[in-house]
Amino acid sequence: MCGALMASASRFYFYQFLSIILLVAFLARESTTLANGFSIKEATVHELQLAFQRNQLTSRQLVEFYLNQIKIQNPVLKGVLEVNPDALAQADRADQERRTKAPGSLSGLHGIPILVKDNIATKDKLNTTAGSFALLGSVMPRDAGVVTNLRKAGAIILGKATLSEWSHYRSSKAPLGWSARGGQGKNPYTLDEPCGSSSGSAISVAANLVTVSLGTETHGSILCPSSMNSVVGIKPTVGLTSRAGVVPISLRQDTVGPICRTVSDAAYVLETIAGIDTYDNATIEASKYIPKGGYAQFLKKDGLRGKRLGVVRLFYEFGNDTLLDETFNLHLKTLRQRGAVLVDNLKIDTIDEIIGYRSEEISLSFEFKLSLNEYLKDLVASPVKSLADVIAFNKEHPKLEKIEYGQDIMLQAEKTNGIEEAQKQALLNLTRWSQDGFEKLMKINELDAVVTPFFSFSDILAIGGYPGVNVPAGYEKGVPFGICFGGLKGSEPKLIEIAYSFEQATLIRKPPPLRKLEV
Description:
Elements: H1 2-28, H2 45-53, H3 59-77, E1 80-83, H4 87-100, E2 113-117, H5 145-152, E3 156-161, H6 165-168, E4 178-179, E5 183-184, H7 199-206, E6 212-217, H8 223-228, E7 232-235, E8 255-260, H9 263-273, H10 282-286, E9 308-312, H11 322-337, E10 341-346, H12 351-356, H13 359-378, H14 387-396, H15 408-414, H16 421-444, E11 449-453, H17 458-464, E12 468-476, E13 479-486, H18 492-506
Parallel strand pairs: 2-3, 2-6, 9-10, 9-11
Antiparallel strand pairs: 1-3, 4-5, 6-8, 7-8, 7-12, 11-13, 12-13
């Protein structure tokens, strides 16, 4: 008994000592100012580029800073899955190019570190696994299209961000932000679930583990973690950015977009990754939406002036939460004060069908099986060659893959057999609901965008392939939440104007609080 008590006491003092060490380490992250006075923490892409030009900062120093932050914070936050062993070499190359090339000849992302979600392929020393051990060691045929664009721009691939495993398309029971390889990601503001599936991308940007990041969205996977981690997320029009080399769910709904701390940073990233990719035919049609001169030109403080914004009151039902009522009423007032015209009390005619029917679920299920099997066939090497192989791998490795979470979504998808009558009808439903619902609402009321709280509008934007932008909107008892601006296909220029103008009018975002880290 005495021995047991002594062992218990030893464990208590060990964990107490460990907590103190972690707290000191966490506090050390605030030493973010260089000897010359430049502070890296919360710095925007534009500020970093100015620091490069003024010789206040090098890409190597920037990468070293983030590697240190990852070392300190990531054991708890779990936002980063892998660090690129070549990141410092890429930084040195960027510094050399800056010294030898003419001023103004380099892109806005040159020398800037970026994390990409672990379902986005990189043909380098990093793995691409969608968070699953089933894909560990697979060999990519090439970089994903968006990664190719980032490399051309001179961005530094810092590493891979964690995610909800298989973009949360394995099990309905698995926690958001969890993957077998990455563990449970944590919101840096609350240390609770970060939402998903682009959880690590949002966590890492919010906690200053990286400058900017890439996420993907099929249904809410950029907008939700951006809202809950107090960062900016852009869900682009489907096809505006290439999905080639991205572990898929649905080519009809999948899109790749930036997650950043500011609208301006997100605009720089979007204009870098948008464009035609011959490996993704959807980009050819969507390229007509890309404005000449890129997206940064729409960063206008008066961008709200004259914009017609729709308010669908169904999405503002907060129950008895008067604080949220007051907050969003204040935000709507700010939009008016900045020159926007609010068209209030609108209703989407097909909303009951969208919410009440299973057409999206049916469509995603068969699309996932078909598209994943095609993706796996394209790999140079892979431990698994089909969805059936993935399911079998999970069963064979119950401890690695936490099989107690189940794989009901995958099992349902495996049962599908291509496009049969039910699948055809589901696709027709989604098209009709979008045309007779959101598109009709926008056109009849001559709206530039719809403004909604949180990520609640992601259902509507998902099924029609429409774009949306999340901007930090506040904190309720310390929990972040955002505001979303959604529009018709190709409306990114308007959405960026609106989002940037709102952001500059409110300047709500603040970095995560100092808190005691506990293992």
